[in-house]
């Protein structure tokens, strides 16, 4: 079963509180999502492999450590996931960015894939799928299915806030995927919104209704 990591870092929690506030405007909301994504990326990359190299400092030759060439990919779920990408790229600018677009079928209420664009070397990359919210778990589950059927083998999922219901669904459908979240909220309401949540992340990021 995939592990669930809840980040309790004070800076993440402080910024998340402002993100939740309904009075926070589009500009500040977008900036804070970017900042929290950077802080979360710092934690989610903690287990990246290192290799030892020799370098020449201004003082002497030294043994030092550098990333061991692990290929990474970031895959936002359209559209709200886009708001998290730049924050991650600040720390790992060499990562490739793919995209997965989903819409909800009005009859079945199930997510349907309408767009997928991934790096050509899918099998060789570790992917981080990002979306600000994990509510019912349907979109996250389908996005990860989209990656797997194209050859992705190592996938992590990262979001700001999650409902227990969504975490359970994602763990059941993808027990090999670890989940990284800034906050595990109370529940879903009757409309499928996370409580207390942060509203509609896409609308708040892009100023739409």
From TrEMBL:
Family note: Belongs to the UPRTase family.
Annotated residues for binding of uracil: 194, 199-201
Regulation acting on activity, per entry: Allosterically activated by GTP.
Gene3D superfamilies: 3.40.50.2020
Cofactor: Mg(2+)
Gene: upp
The record's free-text note on cofactor binding: Binds 1 Mg(2+) ion per subunit. The magnesium is bound as Mg-PRPP.
Pathway: Pyrimidine metabolism; UMP biosynthesis via salvage pathway; UMP from uracil: step 1/1
Keywords in alphabetical order: Allosteric enzyme, Glycosyltransferase, GTP-binding, Magnesium, Nucleotide-binding, Transferase
Residues noted as binding 5-phospho-alpha-D-ribose 1-diphosphate in the record, renumbered to the chain: 79, 104, 131-139, 200
EC numbers on record: 2.4.2.9
HAMAP family the record matches: Upp_B
Span of domain Phosphoribosyltransferase: 6-208
Stretches that traverse the bilayer: none
Function: Catalyzes the conversion of uracil and 5-phospho-alpha-D-ribose 1-diphosphate (PRPP) to UMP and diphosphate.
NCBIfam families in the cross-refs: PRK00129.1, upp
One GO molecular-function entry: glycosyltransferase activity
Catalytic reaction(s) noted: UMP + diphosphate = 5-phospho-alpha-D-ribose 1-diphosphate + uracil
The protein's name in its UniProt record: Uracil phosphoribosyltransferase
